[in-house]
Amino acid sequence: MSEKNCCTCPETVAMATVPMQEWCEIYDWNTALKEGTIFTCLNLPIFLADKGKSNLKTNSSTPTSGQQEREELMSRISAISFAINDLTLYLDTHPNCPKGTPLFHQLSKERMNLLTDYAKKYNPLTQLSMVTADLNQNDYAWANGPMPWEGGCI
Amino acid sequence: MWAYEKRLQFPVKIKKTCPKTAQLVISQYGGPDGELSASMRYLAQRYTMPVKKVGGLLTDIGTEEINHMEIICAIVYQLTRDLTPEDVKTAGFDAYYIDHTKALWPQAAAGIPFTATEFQSKGDPFADLFENLAAEQKARTVYDNLLRVIEDPDVRAPLKFLRTREIVHFQRFGEALEMTKSHLDHNNFYYFNAEFDKQFYKPEDHC
Questions:
Q1: Domain extents for chain B?
Q2: What are the φ/ψ torsions at residue B99 (nearest 5 degrees)?
Q3: Chain B closest CA to A125's CA: distance in Å?
Q4: Which residues in chain B have their CB less than 8 angstroms from residue A47's CB?
Q5: Class level of CATH domain B19-181
Q6: Which of A67, A133, A152, B98 could pair with A119 in a Cys bridge, judged by C-beta atoms 3.0 to 4.6 Å apart?
Q7: Which whole number is the average pLDDT over A117-145?
Q8: Which among A46, A60, A151 has the least Cβ separation from residue B78?
Q9: pLDDT score at A122
């Protein structure tokens, strides 16, 4: 099935028409998270956007190398997981997309491996990753780790 | 069924306490165009949507809006967690403090409590999809307004992310509108209500 799909109806009076998005150039996953979409064609910032550059990563106190590694792994999980979130909505309305569907499966596998890795090294972020990481069955690991809203490990 | 994941969709790491900013941002928690209202709107509408894939999209966007509610709450919490008795007197947050101390409670910036009357679940696919298109534009406007007055880059980064999501969701609801139209007769989209008049609606119909 081509990118132009069957959902386009003839234009009529008294009804709005929104063009179906066609697959466009996509960002690397870190940029996509920062911008709020993987699709370059949907990134439409307001003129105010550049006021005050984010110092999210740069001005925190120098972390220990262990903390730095942990934050890097968490950043990769955030970026890959967000790419899947955005791709999911695209595929909900473009279910037969030949580019998006294989990418969705590839990213989902990567995400599972990263979550497993994080659960083994630090604490589980999902209950499923307690199983894939084969955690000690006598440890209630779900209670471990910081709460997400504390902003400790991003 | 929902399963919790112990992380935010977009990281929030705010260093500077600012109750005044918290009092503005809280509108996207419990205000008329806030994330709580958005998630409840889409998750309420999905049951009766005639096109199955549109019900799926409403589930996925409704779920993402819950993530956004968590981001907004994390911003408000981090802006107020180190509040001193002196900070409490800041105009705008003093009245909130009296009723809720530092706890999260869904309200609009002007203090109006969250109310379900601010979103619609009408039971007609066009009425509901246009409601959703408008909701995304209204939420984008609130993020524009917040970005105009808030300077702290730690707060601006998640707000910019959330603003872009409103535009992406607008596009997806537009596509959901096209999917719905493709199942109906384009000579008169209003001949029947596809969520109610089942004798006319055949899900397999295509334009």
A1: 19-181
A2: -90, -30
A3: 5
A4: none
A5: mainly alpha
A6: A133
A7: 96
A8: A151
A9: 96
